[in-house]
Structure formats: structure tokens, C-alpha cells
Design goal:
17 strands, seven-stranded mixed sheet, alpha/beta
Length: about 400
């Protein structure tokens, strides 16, 4: 993959740019195996390789410049906007939508936020591409991260134009919202969301399920590889002996793992701190026809897995699934897993160092199976799925 932004030095996010993709995969596998070597004799499955470019289905574009000439991309070392709207990592549909979103800034008079001066209104434009197929059908979710509600009426008035303009580049606007983040701080978004469309969720096919995503819900940026992640988890769990009857998914997000694991003879409970994600996961479950309780069921509850204190116990489960943020599980949750009666642990990690650190805090567990998934091509980052069993 070639990139004008990287060659010009305006963006160095893809630190492995220019290296052959098979070489990148080999290094990801080597680094993961070395970091986890002391935690068990892992059976490493072949790594999952997605597309080298055009794979990023979710774009968080910092808005800089001016109303008349906005930039969509990142901030440079002086905290000024650098335009990356032609970034080769974006899906073709997102790339086609970027000029339309830039024009939206001008038409709605959304003043880009000036970080050094601490003034302005629009901080980011976040766009999610649902992909093709009957469920995705070229759908888009567009979110404007604003400092206040002042610009919301102007954004709302542009909804008919935006719908038509995106249709002209092969995209179907499903959800438009304004997120309110008033603080002068490096926070990606605020707690309040104003949805401007009739639809509040975007149906996104991921693996074998359709996830109904709300504006504040989490989804992996690489939907193709995310689907492979969930399918791998489902295959591993189906092969476990004895078969787990009760599964707790402690960072369930929009329900990707939980809905792939729900099936006959198994009861799945998903826990997520975001009420928006729980509502979205529940809708995805209902449309899939999965019962709420009993055999083959899945239910979702609002809760914070990271809020455990040192003495709190996990609910009884045969299998626990964790997909924590980059910082990992933390001491309290590791201690609770040590005390739990679970026989198996499925750990999906986006940061191998924190995964290795957590496994150090789980001495009664042994890693038996692993797989590297190239969720972030052109970088040294990867998703690693590890299955652990009691020693």
C-alpha cells in the first residue's frame, strides 16, 4: 500500500507502511508468541489477514481549518488540522463521503474547534460504514461532536441535503446525530447525544449476526476481521469439553461475542457499562429471535466490570469472556477471576503487553489456544484471542 500522506510526512500513524503484508503478519505472530510464551504451550492457529487497505469502517476525523476550508483528519504537532480525507485505510464508501462531510461543515456553518485558542464549535466528525449486503446496504452513521447545542438547528436543517448528497456518492444516511462535548479536554465525546434522524440505530452485519449500533456504542473499526474474531470464538467454545452451560461476557459492547456464543444448551449474559450498547445488543438479540432467559438465551445488563473491589466475586459461570480496553483487566478483576469457579476464560486483547501482565496475575490459568488477528494493518498493533483453562 502506498500513501501520499505518509510519504509527505504529514501522517505517521501507519508505522509499518511499505512493508510486505505477509512480513507484517509474521512479525505480529512472533511478537505475540514471545510475549505469551511463559503462560502455557499455546496452540497458535494461522493469523487472520484482512485487506491491506480500504478496511477501516469507522473514521474519527478531527475537524480543523475554517468554515470555508475545513480539514478532516488529525492534528499536527502544533495542534492544527491536517487533512486526511483521502486516507487509503478508509473503506471506499467512507472515502467518497469525506468531501460531502467537508461541504456539510461549510453549509451548516460549523466552526471548527481551534485547540490552541480554545474556541470553536465542531471538534470531530465520526462516520461508520455498515458495508454492503442486505443488512448493511450501504448505510452510514454520521456524528458531529459539538461543544454545545448552538449549532444543532443548523445541522438539522442540512439533513435533507446531506441525505441526497451522500446518496449521490453511493451511501445511504441512516443515522445523523450531534454529540455534546463542552470541555476543553482531549475527550473523544461527551455523555449527551442528540439524534436528528428518525432511525436511532444502524444495522451492521458482523460475522454471523447483525448488530444494531447506536451512536455511543462500540464496534471494531475493521468489520471483516471482527467477524473472523467472533467466528473463531464461537468455534473454540463449541469444541470445549465439558460444554459450558453458563457464559458471562464482561465487556459485551454491542453483543458481538455474546450473540455468536448464544445457542442450544447455553445461557449467555452480557455486561456492559454503556446503557446505549446494552439497548442496541438487546435489539439485535430480539431481531435474531434469541430468547431472553432459559436454554439458548442471551440477556444484557448494564454494569461496570472494572468497578469490582478486591473482595467482590463474579457470578457463577462455566466460561467468562473478556474484551477489555488497552489498559487490560486490572488487579481486582484478575483477582475475581482467580476466585471464580469458571473452567474456561476467553480473552480478546488489543494490547499484548497488558494481556501478558494480566496473565501474570492469573496463575491458576493456563493458555492453551491463541490466534493473531490483523485488525490494524500497516501497524504493529493487533487483536489477539487467547483461550485459557484452569491448571
Amino acid at each position: 500500500m502506498q500513501c501520499d500522506y505518509y510519504d509527505a510526512g504529514s501522517c505517521r500513524s501507519c508505522e509499518w507502511m511499505g512493508r510486505p503484508h505477509d512480513e507484517q503478519l509474521a512479525d505480529l505472530q512472533r511478537l505475540s508468541a514471545a510475549a505469551l510464551a511463559r503462560h502455557g504451550d499455546l496452540l497458535w492457529e494461522p493469523p487472520v489477514a484482512g485487506r491491506e487497505s480500504g478496511f477501516r469502517s469507522k473514521a474519527k476525523m478531527v475537524v480543523g481549518g475554517s468554515v470555508e476550508a475545513p480539514t478532516l483528519g488529525i492534528l499536527d504537532e502544533h495542534r492544527r488540522g491536517t487533512d486526511l480525507r483521502r486516507c487509503g485505510l478508509l473503506t471506499p464508501r467512507l472515502a467518497a463521503a469525506m468531501p460531502v462531510l467537508a461541504e456539510l461543515v461549510t453549509r451548516a456553518r460549523l466552526t471548527p474547534y481551534d485547540v490552541p485558542a480554545r474556541r470553536g464549535e465542531l471538534k470531530q466528525l465520526v462516520c461508520l460504514d455498515a458495508g454492503d449486503g442486505p443488512a448493511g446496504d450501504g448505510g452510514l452513521m454520521v456524528r458531529a461532536v459539538l461543544r454545545s447545542t448552538e449549532a444543532v438547528p443548523r445541522l438539522r436543517r442540512q439533513l435533507p441535503w446531506l441525505t441526497g448528497a451522500l446518496a449521490g456518492v453511493g451511501a445511504r444516511l441512516v443515522v445523523l446525530s450531534a454529540n455534546l462535548q463542552p470541555l476543553h479536554a482531549a475527550l473523544p465525546e461527551g455523555p449527551d447525544e442528540v439524534v436528528l434522524t428518525e432511525a436511532r440505530t444502524l444495522p451492521v452485519p458482523v460475522g454471523d449476526v447483525v448488530l444494531h449500533l447506536r451512536p455511543q456504542g462500540f464496534v471494531q473499526t475493521n468489520l471483516e476481521v471482527a467477524g473472523a474474531l467472533y467466528r473463531t470464538a464461537a468455534a473454540w467454545v463449541s469444541a470445549l469439553v465439558p460444554a459450558p452451560a453458563v457464559v458471562w461476557d464482561l465487556y459485551c459492547g454491542a453483543g458481538g461475542f455474546a450473540l455468536h456464543l448464544a445457542g442450544p444448551g447455553r445461557e449467555v449474559v452480557g455486561v456492559e457499562v454503556s446503557a446505549e450498547s446494552v439497548a442496541a445488543a438487546s435489539r439485535s438479540r430480539d431481531e435474531r429471535g434469541v430468547p431472553v432467559g432459559g436454554d439458548g438465551s442471551a440477556r444484557f445488563v448494564v454494569g461496570d466490570a472494572t468497578a469490582l473491589d478486591g473482595s467482590a466475586d463474579l457470578p457463577a459461570a462455566d466460561l467468562v469472556v473478556v474484551n477489555p480496553p488497552r489498559r487490560g483487566l486490572g488487579d481486582a478483576l484478575c483477582a475475581a477471576l482467580e476466585r471464580s469457579g469458571a473452567r474456561h476464560l476467553l480473552y480478546s486483547s488489543c494490547a499484548v503487553p497488558s494481556l501478558a501482565r494480566d496473565l501474570d496475575a492469573l496463575p491458576s490459568w493456563r493458555a492453551v489456544r491463541g490466534r493473531v488477528l490483523d485488525m490494524f494493518p500497516q501497524t504493529a498493533h493487533q487483536e489477539v484471542l487467547v483461550l485459557l483453562e484452569r491448571r
